[in-house]
Amino acid sequence: MILDILFIGFAFFVLIQIIYYVLIFGKFSFSKPQNITTKNVPISVIVCAKNEEENITKFFPLLVSQNYSNYEIVLIDDASSDNTRDLFEEYAKQYPNVKVVKVDNNEAFWGNKKYALTLGIKAAKNDYLLFTDADCYPTSQNWITNMSSQFTLKRTIVLGYGSYEKIKNSFLNKIIRYETLLTATQYFAWAKIGKPYMGVGRNLAYHKDEFFKVRGFIDHMKVRSGDDDLFINQASSKTNTTICFTPDSFTCSKPKTTYASWFLQKRRHIATAKYYKSFDRFQLGLFYISQLSFLVLAFLLLAFQHQWIIVTTLITLRYLFTWLSMGYAAAKLNEKDVMYWYPFIEIFIIFTQLNLFFTNLFSKPAHWK
Fold first, then answer.
1. In whole angstroms, what is the distance from residue 44 CA to residue 97 CA?
2. Which of 90, 196, 212, 318 is placed for a possible disulfide with 241 were both Cys, Cβ 3.0 to 4.6 Å?
3. Do 62 and 138 touch, CB atoms closer than 8 A?
4. What are the tens digits of pLDDT across the range 126-185?
5. pTM of the shown model
6. Are 249 and 143 in contact (CB under 8 A)?
7. Nearest residue to 155 (alpha-carbon basis) of 124, 122, 194
8. Which residues, in sequence order, are CB contacts of 368 under 8 Å at separation 6+?
9. Which CATH number does the domain 34-256 belong to among 2.40.50.140, 1.20.120.1200, 1.10.1740.10, 3.90.550.10?
10. Which residues contact residue 32 at a Cβ distance below 8 angstroms, ignoring those fewer than 6 apart?
């Protein structure tokens, strides 16, 4: 009797998984390649940095050499203790389209990246804003062209893809990149459905009006993280949000190289999800519960050889549909190599998320440096 109930539950969660991967994520995975039409709208590229001297030295040339005729670069120094501010001031002397915003420690907003970003947004001379992080770089000189091409009179928020560098012979690197791929597939797909819920600050664009409509970050200023996903969760809608996934629109970051540092990074990301809208929390929770339940119930049913032929068939169907869906998404986002390890990576991530959940219950993660 108990095994029959578990079997019914297993079949239900397989169905939920197929609905997610095929009907929901498939909106992005199986979509047509994206075309661009150059708009050449005035853009302000905003980069917020705190003690990023090394990364800025390396990546700034890729920002200033973009094939775009009408843009400025707003460099925000968030009270750095290294030579970041000196570098910014030197760049401003060399390049007429570079503006420096100097942020000193403020007792009310000490160490709050949202405060620094707010000052940078207000200082930007253009209405269209394009964001990336100081440890990121565009993978193409046409990054601004591609991201800005998706703006229309109605579509004033553009969600982009922020990838991570590939490290040869590193299984952790494949885990990080697959998790990033899955996250992007989710927020791209829900945006296409008309239910956008997050974006990543490594590659995000919006009109300045969208920032002021929701009073900027004021409603979640006390939450140290979430200058990207919490803002998008609040400001985005079916009518004002679109996506950009052309290969020239990507940015890239250096990934974590130890499990401990990646785990801490994910703790910060997951800690913001509890502030999402109720529907977004529900759909993300249901997706994870269905993943975990699928694995646990499949193991139990096979261990007791209960309806093992049907169970094996359902497992095969589930992996077939998910592999196809994520495989097409990986091809779009230039992450095809992670799919060779897909089943093992997925299992690892599912149980890591369980660990993250319980760890965050008992302690708070650290945030902006």
1. 9
2. 196
3. yes
4. 999 999 999 999 999 999 999 999 999 999 999 999 999 999 999 999 999 999 999 999
5. 0.94
6. yes
7. 194
8. 50, 78, 111, 112, 113, 224, 225
9. 3.90.550.10
10. none
